[in-house]
């Protein structure tokens, strides 16, 4: 079993300590350091290889968005997952554009943390289902589109947005993972999305995801 070296980056010490305790209960993770700001984070990254970072957005000095851009540029093998209290679509867009591969709300739980980390380390994206539902509620105007998706494509898009991995979707729908990969490819082609975050935004804007 792979053990992933993880760093928590957040300027609230009590939150960091509590999160550290929870993460220690997850067998695939070893919390090797904590940082209260970007400067401390990059000092850590200079000294050792890190697999994954849980990154807050609002921090003194360099914020989590700029810090993520710098991590992706200087340490491309290190994954970044946003862990934030912000549920606004704007923060999601900025973190995804910066190169984060996951977006979690701070009211998450241990099971979701483990799932998000495992999926991101397996090369997939993870988005908090609660964030997706909240974002859609605040999307005041649903955007009309000429894109025509089949019932199966909509079903798969909903499951992607709810944080399920390709193998999980295949098992749930009783079809092969290769078939899921084909549907995903067609979703990218039809929507013009370049990556999974773009698919999520398409689903939110067009009211596809059901709370």
Structural summary, described in words:
The chain is an alpha/beta fold. The chain folds into two domains: 124 residues, Response regulator (Rossmann fold, 3-Layer(aba) Sandwich); 70 residues, Winged helix-like DNA-binding domain superfamily/Winged helix DNA-binding domain (Arc Repressor Mutant, subunit A), CATH 1.10.10.10. Helix 3 runs parallel beside helix 4. It is globular and about 50 Å long. The mean pLDDT is 90.
What is the topological layout?
Layout: E1 4-9, H1 13-23, E2 29-35, H2 38-47, E3 52-55, H3 64-74, E4 79-84, H4 89-98, E5 102-105, H5 110-121, E6 126-127, H6 129-138, H7 151-161, H8 166-173, H9 177-191, H10 196-205
Parallel strand pairs: 1-2, 1-3, 3-4, 4-5, 5-6
Quick rundown:
The chain is of the alpha/beta class. It has helices at residues 13-23, 38-47, 64-74, 89-98, 110-121, 129-138, 151-161, 166-173, 177-191, 196-205, and strands spanning 4-9, 29-35, 52-55, 79-84, 102-105, 126-127. It starts with a strand and ends in a 6-residue tail after the last helix.
Keywords:
211 residues, alpha/beta, Rossmann fold, Arc Repressor Mutant, subunit A, 2 domains, six-stranded parallel sheet, 10 helices, 6 strands, 14% strand, globular
């Amino acid at each position: 079993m792979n053990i992933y070296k993880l760093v928590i980056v957040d300027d609230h010490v009590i939150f960091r300590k509590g999160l550290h305790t929870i993460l220690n209960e997850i067998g695939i993770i070893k919390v090797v350091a904590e940082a209260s700001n970007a400067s401390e984070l990059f000092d850590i990254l200079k000294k050792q290889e890190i697999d994954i970072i849980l990154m807050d957005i609002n921090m003194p000095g360099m914020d989590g968005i700029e810090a993520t851009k710098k991590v992706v540029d200087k340490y491309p093998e290190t994954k970044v997952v946003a862990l934030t209290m912000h549920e606004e679509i704007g923060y999601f867009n900025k973190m995804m554009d910066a190169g984060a591969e996951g977006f979690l709300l701070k009211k998450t739980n241990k099971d979701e943390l483990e799932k998000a980390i495992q999926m991101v380390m397996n090369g997939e994206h993870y988005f908090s289902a609660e964030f997706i539902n909240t974002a859609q509620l605040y999307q005041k105007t649903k955007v009309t589109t000429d894109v025509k998706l089949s019932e199966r494509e909509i079903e798969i898009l909903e499951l992607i947005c709810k944080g399920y991995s390709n193998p999980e979707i295949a098992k749930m729908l009783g079809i092969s993972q290769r078939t899921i990969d084909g549907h995903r490819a067609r979703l990218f082609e039809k929507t013009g999305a370049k990556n999974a975050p773009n698919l999520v935004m398409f689903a939110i804007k067009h009211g596809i995801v059901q709370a």
